Write the structure tokens for this entry.
Amino acid sequence: MSSSTPTSTVGVGACSHPVTLRRTVTDSRTGSSSSTEHAKRCGTRIESRCPSCSALYKGDAFQVIRSGIIDATTNLPKLVTMLTLTAPGSERFGKTHVRHLTKNKKVQRCSCRRYHNENDPMLGTPIDPDTYDYDGAAAFNANASRLFAVTMQKLGRLLGRKLQVVRVIEFQARGLVHVHALVLGPVPPCSLELVIRGGTNRRTGRPISAAMSGGWTWGKECDAKVIQGDTPGKAIAYLVKVVKYALKDTGRGECRNFSHGDKMADAANTGFCCDLSLYECKHGSSQAIVEQNIIDESTGEITTVRRPVSYQGKRTSRTCRRHRRAENGWGFRGHILAKSRNWGCTFGEVRARRNSWMAASKPPLPSHLTVTWERLREPSLTGSTSGVSPP
């Protein structure tokens, strides 16, 4: 015997796209069960999609990053270095509409010979879309995570220590990604330049090749700034800035020019999604094997053959993760916010502390009761699944 009650929205707060779950409690002594519907937060990090869940993610991200740069004994920031790694410029992909300011805060003329305001949807889009290298832009985004990992490995070997680092990805309007990172300890700008461009190690005299992944290297405007521990304001200010980057949307969600966004998504879908087509991906395996009996009309002989039949999987409303990353991330495959294993605490630890605090006020569940959860329907916004957000 089972019963059902209306949906409970306790703990959802002001979530814009809650996910509905069914909670079934079964009594092993009587065999009876009862079901209740509960709304769960969508869990997205993107502020434009759900300000409530994004604010919760912002607090978690702040605690994770802060745990690495704040000394637990003195409660003061440690010596850290801010790294900025940029994508190649217009000489590699093509010129785009830009808005630069002079030292007197005057707007400079763009290469198109016009002046752009800060809300112009043309900013970041190619001046000549026919010659812009969209495929190259998607390829750089796909290799950005690996390129950053290679850069940190080479930099750690050059400095002679295992780096403690946290990094955040920023999507530019032109469709390419930048990396903002915090590294514990000093990183001389000359050492970063040596790793990025290549050269000779002055200490050992050995040649060092430039950091590279998939044939891609970083752009010209890379920088390293050391923040001393006696200036905590700068470290906290940069920490707040880094967290804000993690709340921004990616790909089409951040793009204000739909034509440019569609071309970037098409380029990413061409070479950096999964091997299945969009239709096949929504239906599972495209090569299900079935047995078929073929009867020879002249002899009556029956022959059994095995043939692949397409689209035999269960139909879903969502594609796989690689398809979503290609569509929404313009080829970028990594996480927006990532850290090394030796950096402070983790998101799991921060959320576990919050869950423990919430569970402390709830009575324990008797041993003869068993609880199961079932998701009833997809959230209204594709990509904002429980606890998971697009890149």
